[in-house]
Amino acid sequence: MKKIVILGTGIMAVGIAAGFLATAHTVILLGRSKERAQDQQTEIEQLTLGLNPRWTQEQNPLVFGAINDWDDWSDVIWVLETIKEDMGLKQILFAQLDLRVPKHIPIGSNSSGFPISKIAVNLDTAYRMFNAHYFMPAHIVPLVEVVLGEKSDPVMGEAVCQMYRDAGKKPVLVKKDIPGFLANRIQHALMREALSLVDAGIASPDDVDTAVRYSFGFRYAAVGPMTQKEISGWEGMAGASVEIWPSLYNVDGLQPVIANLIDQGKYGMKSKEGFRTWSDEEMKEMRRKYNARLKAAFDVLQVEPD
């Protein structure tokens, strides 16, 4: 029986747990207390059934426990930390795992901001420690970035990637521990240009969304940017780059348009106002559409997988 241990009880842990349960893994969810972990049971079960209506607790159990008390590592193939983004807490937890988890079991951190090289600094078994970065919602978005730290074993990293392939995910092996890993670096390059265009009054936020969704974003659901240019031809991109690249915005700080929003406490849906205001009904409907569109895109990709 393939067992996955997940440490933490937040929204990422819930989605990650559902993804593994839906693909024939036993999941052990550990919280600050067993009761805190059990509080997530209903949501995890609902998400799992949404992914795999045939899932049953008898076939692939969902088990709960407390982080500090758990000591059963039999048949565990992966341990993943998803606690809050606090470097000190993560370092303390990984120091404990370094001693408690048998040395053949790989250990990951879902941190998007803290590199595994720093989380696992000076630990004896840092070779089996990796970033394993998911994207929200974790039970739907296929990508998992498996990032090698300074001491991570590349062979074990590839084995972790294969484990994720077997669990229905699309892992990528990031071979150097750099800020933003892979996908977030590309995403932030896009966001820097998009916000700069809005800040300069060249386009509205809605028009930026429309331009991305219905042009290259639409194409990227079919193939990635490298393959898309293999199809269309690199010489065309190279010719356009002469004109476009020198004009791209290269700011190294927040654009005033977004800095002003943040200063005013306008964070988006969490404060019910960002570039626009959001009612409770509008937020609920947009989240429904978002998840439905992601699920539909995933289903289409599975019709003719890579």
Can you give a write-up of this model?
It is a single chain. With 306 residues, this protein is an alpha/beta fold. It has two domains: 3-174, NAD(P)-binding Rossmann-like Domain (Rossmann fold), CATH 3.40.50; 184-303, N-(1-d-carboxylethyl)-l-norvaline Dehydrogenase, domain 2. The chain has 13 helices and eight strands. The chain has helices at 11-21, 34-38, 41-51, 87-100, 116-119, 154-166, 183-199, 205-213, 216-220, 225-232, 234-244, 256-263, 280-303, and strands at residues 3-7, 26-31, 62-66, 76-81, 107-109, 129-134, 143-148, 170-174. An eight-stranded mixed β-sheet has the order 3-2-1-4-5-6-7-8. Strand 6 and strand 7 form a beta hairpin. Helix 1 crosses helix 3.
Key structural traits:
306 residues, alpha/beta, N-(1-d-carboxylethyl)-l-norvaline Dehydrogenase, domain 2, 2 domains, 13 helices, 8 strands
Mean pLDDT: 95
Q: Determine the CATH topology of the largest domain.
A: Rossmann fold
Q: How do the SSEs run, as a string of H and E?
A: EHEHHEEHEHEEHEHHHHHHH
Q: Any low-confidence stretches, pLDDT <50, length ≥5? A: none
Overall structural class, as computed from helix and strand content, comes to alpha/beta
Strand portion: 5-15%
Q: Give me the CATH superfamily of the largest domain.
A: NAD(P)-binding Rossmann-like Domain
Specify Rg, calculated over alpha carbons: 21 Å
Q: Let me know the largest β-sheet.
A: 8 strands, mixed
- What is the number of independent domains? 2
Terminal-residue CA separation: 28 Å
Report the helical percentage: 40-55%
